[in-house]
Design a protein that fits this description.
InterPro entries: L-lactate/malate_DH (IPR001557), Lactate/malate_DH_C (IPR022383), Lactate/malate_DH_N (IPR001236), Lactate_DH/Glyco_Ohase_4_C (IPR015955), Malate_DH_AS (IPR001252), Malate_DH_type1 (IPR010097), NAD(P)-bd_dom_sf (IPR036291). Keywords: NAD, Oxidoreductase, Tricarboxylic acid cycle. Belongs to the LDH/MDH superfamily. MDH type 1 family. The strands form 3 sheets. This protein has a 6-stranded parallel sheet with strand order 3-2-1-4-5-6, sandwiched between helices. The protein has helices spanning about 15-25, 35-40, 60-70, 85-90, 110-115, 140-155, 170-185, 195-210, 240, 245-255, 260-265, 275-290, 340-360; strands at about 50-55, 75-80, 100-105, 120-125, 160-165, 190-195, 220-225, 230, 295-305, 315-325, 325-330. It starts with 15 loop residues before the first helix and ends with a helix. It is built from 13 helices and 11 strands. A hairpin with a 2-residue loop joins strand 10 (about 315-325) and strand 11 (about 325-330). It has a domain at about 35-195: Rossmann fold, CATH 3.40.50.720.
Length: about 375
């Protein structure tokens, strides 16, 4: 597709150029330093809510619990895990912010108590990656965990916004979708796969090359959340256009397989838990702001999308405007280069296969 924006097909009545004028200045949160999104909210736009974290005692769950405790938009923080969650709740409750913390275990209807009244459910539960494992290798274990937790959420908190972190996201999001469909409560506006880490990584890695500020270098990443399904649209930034040849190929590969760096560096002791927790907190905080009435909140996320439904791809990650009901509008992808066209061609069949795997697991 040509980079000439005048040739971009209209989407939702606006060309990308017209649409970008409305949205590019409105990406409020993604990539900002932590202090920028935890303490500086106006109470007039706050909608204090209960947030539930399922898998709160794990490698992602613990730092995520701490980050969400810092948000002035959270009134109640409910932490659930099969073990350790009361300890996490006790620990983070000592942080001098207003959110009330409660930790629950499976006994005494702990899961139901965690979910009851939740506006947002964050689901990092599952086993972490180890050296040599891909996200897809985690499917057999994590699929069952996600299915069972989604089944409970569909019964207890069907209107809650479900944010899926558990890998493989390309398959676990469809699993939740199918569970909700069977329960008769599926609302595509309220189901999200958290892919913010891909954008955070892409922005950080490109800024290293371009010598720019990572928080101001925002790369749109589309597709999915695993390997070749991760497609960074570097050509949409001047800094990205300057990366060519082998350097471009190396940068794309690093973005697509950035998680491997962490798995290898931790020498089998874990995966990208801290950066993933940060990315999930960024997305959750953006959603909290949108639910509270803030306008123009745009974040990348893996959702039920029209972008490639004609090719059998029901879910796709791209920039989405968030609103009071969750997904307000799925934004156009915008102009892409020939190299990015090829990346998307490679992405789609793999992504379709991942999605179908999740759907079939429930059916």
């Amino acid at each position: 597709m040509s980079l000439n924006s005048s040739k971009i097909t209209r989407w939702g009545g606006d060309s990308f150029t017209e649409r970008s004028k409305k949205t590019l200045g409105l990406i409020i949160v993604s990539g900002l330093p932590l202090g920028s999104f935890t303490r500086n909210f106006s109470s007039s736009t706050s909608n204090l809510t209960k947030v539930a974290i399922l898998g709160a005692a794990g490698g992602i769950g613990q730092p995520l619990s701490l980050l969400m405790k810092q948000s002035s938009l959270v009134s109640d923080l409910a932490l659930y895990d099969i073990r350790g969650s009361p300890g996490v709740a006790a620990d983070v409750s000592h942080v001098n912010t207003s959110a009330k913390c409660h930790g629950y275990l499976p006994d005494n209807n702990g899961l139901e108590k965690t979910l009851d009244g939740a506006s947002i459910i964050l689901l990092p539960a599952g086993v972490p990656r180890k050296p040599g494992m891909s996200r897809d290798d985690l499917f057999n274990t994590n699929a069952s965990i996600v299915r069972d937790l989604a089944t409970a959420a569909a019964k207890v908190a069907p209107k809650a916004h479900m944010l899926i972190i558990a890998n493989p996201v390309n398959s676990t999001v469809p699993i939740v979708g199918e569970v909700y469909k069977k329960a008769g409560v599926f609302d595509p506006k309220r189901l999200f796969g958290v892919t913010t880490l891909d954008v955070v990584r892409a922005s950080a890695f490109l800024s290293e090359i371009a010598k720019t500020s990572p928080s101001k270098t925002r790369v749109q990443v589309v597709g999915g959340h695993s390997g070749v399904t991760i497609v960074p649209l570097l050509s949409q930034l001047k800094e990205g256009q300057n990366v060519k040849g082998e350097a471009y190929k190396a940068l794309v590969k690093r973005i697509q397989f950035g998680g491997d760096e962490v798995v290898q560096a931790k020498d089998g002791a874990g995966s990208a838990t801290l950066s993933m927790a940060y990315a999930a907190a960024v997305f959750a905080d953006s959603l909290l702001k949108a639910l509270g009435g803030a306008q123009g909140i745009v974040e990348p996320t893996f959702v039920k999308s029209p972008h490639y439904q004609g090719q059998g791809v029901e879910y796709f990650a791209s920039n989405v405007e968030l609103g009071s009901e969750g997904v307000k509008e799925i934004l156009p992808i915008g102009p892409i280069s020939k190299e990015e066209e090829e990346l998307i061609k490679a992405c789609l069949p793999e992504l379709k296969k991942n999605i179908e795997k999740g759907v079939k697991f429930v059916q």
